[in-house]
Write a structure and sequence with these properties.
By secondary structure, this protein is of the alpha/beta class. Helix content is 46%, strand content 16%. The chain is elongated, with a radius of gyration of 26 Å.
Length: 193
């Protein structure tokens, strides 16, 4: 009588791995669901920047072709400014460009440009055709400076205080709402300090 009982125990042990295999897809589904639910309430434009509250990275960039003034970390001290990372091949950069031109026309805050991984002649042609909103424009042909700034993609815009500290990062194109609700109030507050 003990032989049939031992056979049943062996059969139960063989079924345990099969049960685990059956539960693995359910466990994976539950894990993916938990990640999805966690991400639902998050704003995709609010990717944290490790540089907020830190000095701008040390860098020196030559001017964009046809421009006189390049850009360096030393240029970002002494006044509140915006640093806009752009490229001629970037569609969203074209969308935000009129707002940058308006900032220049109104003289609210200096805007400096980092031209990201662009061919020199394309960047010069783009700024010539659309207008140049930048006080200084550095050519980051290999993209190393943008990496040091923690750029995920173009366009991105940084608010830099008069001490040369990064205070805010706008991921994606600047919109009228972003200017009105976030960027310009921040600039005004920093300029008043």
């Amino acid at each position: 009588m003990s032989a049939p009982s031992a056979t049943k125990d062996v059969g139960k042990q063989r079924n345990k791995p099969r049960r685990l295999v059956l539960f693995m897809p359910l466990a994976a589904f539950m894990a993916l669901t938990a990640v999805f639910v966690w991400g639902l309430g998050r704003d995709p434009n609010q990717i944290p920047s490790q540089l907020i509250g830190k000095p701008v990275p040390e860098f020196t960039l030559p001017p964009v072709q046809g421009r006189m003034l390049g850009l360096s970390s030393a240029d970002l001290k002494g006044e509140v400014s915006l640093v806009n990372v752009f490229a001629s091949w970037c569609v969203a950069c074209r969308d935000e460009h009129p707002l940058l031109m308006r900032l220049k026309e109104n003289g609210i805050v200096p805007v400096h440009g980092i031209n990201y991984k662009d061919r020199p002649q394309d960047a010069a042609r783009w700024l010539g055709a659309l207008g140049d909103p930048y006080t200084r424009t550095g050519a980051d042909i290999d993209g190393r400076v943008a990496i040091d700034w923690g750029v995920y993609g173009v366009p991105e815009t940084f608010v830099v205080d008069s001490d040369g500290t990064i205070v805010y990062k706008q991921i994606g194109p600047i919109t009228k709402a972003a200017l009105k609700e976030t960027i310009l109030p921040l600039v005004a507050r920093l300029q008043a300090e």
